[in-house]
C-alpha cells in the first residue's frame, strides 16, 4: 500500500532538517514508536505499538536511515514483526522538505507491505491510521521546534 501525507511547520528548513535527521529525537514524536538500540547513526532497533481497527500490536524490528542533505530528503527503510506473531510489516518512508515562506513543508511518502492478520485491514483503515499519526507527528514536531529542542541548539 502506498500513502502520501503533507504538513507544514513554522520553522526554517535547516532547523527542520536537523531535527528530522536525529532519529532518537524524532521517534518520540511518532505515536507508539520507541528506539531500543542505536546500532550506528544510520541503523536502529526499535518497537512500535499500533492499533488497526480492533487489533492492537507491538512490532519489533529494524530501521535504516539514509539522508540526502543536498535534496533535503530522508529515506527510512523498516521491517518488523508483531511480538505475538499475528503479522509483520516492511516498508519505505521518504520524507522530503522544502522551504515555504517562513516555514517548511514536509511531504511523507510511504510504501508498506503487511502480512498475517494485519493484511486483512483495507487501505481505508491504514490510511486513517497514517493520517492520524502524521497529524500527531506534525503537532509534536512543531512543539519541539517551538521549544528549541533540536540537536543543533
Structural description of this entry:
The chain is of the alpha+beta class and 153 residues long. It has a single domain (2-147), classed as Alpha-D-Glucose-1,6-Bisphosphate, Chain A, domain 4 (2-Layer Sandwich), CATH 3.30.530.20. 24% of the residues lie in helices and 51% in strands. It has three helices and seven strands, in the order βααββββββα. The chain has helices at 13-20, 23-26, 123-147; strands spanning 2-9, 33-40, 43-52, 55-68, 73-82, 87-100, 103-116. A seven-stranded antiparallel sheet has the order 1-7-6-5-4-3-2, covered by helices on one side. A hairpin with a 2-residue loop joins strand 3 (43-52) and strand 4. It starts with a strand and ends in a 6-residue tail after the last helix. Residues 149-153 have low confidence and may be disordered.
Number of beta strands: 7
The proportion of residues in beta strands is: over 45%
User: Largest sheet, if any?
Assistant: 7 strands, antiparallel
Q: Mean pLDDT, rounded to whole units?
A: 90
First-to-last CA distance:
37 Å
As for the number of domains, it is: 1
CATH topology: Alpha-D-Glucose-1,6-Bisphosphate, Chain A, domain 4
Low-pLDDT stretches = 149-153
CATH architecture: 2-Layer Sandwich
CATH class descriptor: Alpha Beta
- Helix and strand sequence: EHHEEEEEEH
Strand order of the largest sheet: 1-7-6-5-4-3-2
CATH superfamily: START domain
Gyration radius, rounded = 15 Å
- Number of alpha- plus pi-helical segments: 3
**Which of globular, elongated, flat, extended, rod-shaped describes the shape?**
globular
* Fraction in helix: 10-25%
Estimated structural class: alpha+beta
Amino acid at each position: 500500500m502506498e500513502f502520501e501525507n503533507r504538513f507544514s511547520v513554522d520553522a526554517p528548513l535547516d532547523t527542520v532538517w536537523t531535527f528530522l535527521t536525529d532519529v532518537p529525537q524524532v521517534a518520540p514524536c511518532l505515536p507508539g514508536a520507541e528506539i531500543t538500540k542505536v546500532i550506528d547513526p544510520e541503523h536502529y532497533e526499535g518497537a512500535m505499538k499500533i492499533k488497526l481497527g480492533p487489533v492492537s500490536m507491538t512490532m519489533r524490528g529494524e530501521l535504516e536511515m539514509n539522508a540526502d542533505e543536498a535534496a533535503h530528503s530522508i529515506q527510512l527503510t523498516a521491517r518488523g514483526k508483531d511480538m505475538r506473531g499475528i503479522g509483520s510489516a516492511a516498508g519505505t518512508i521518504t520524507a522530503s522538505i522544502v522551504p515555504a515562506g517562513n516555514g517548511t513543508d514536509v511531504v511523507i511518502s510511504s510504501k508498506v507491505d503487511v502480512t498475517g492478520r494485519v493484511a486483512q485491514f483495507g487501505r481505508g483503515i491504514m490510511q486513517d491510521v497514517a493520517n492520524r499519526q502524521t497529524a500527531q507527528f506534525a503537532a509534536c514536531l512543531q512543539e519541539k521546534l517551538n521549544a528549541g529542542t533540536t540537536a543543533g541548539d
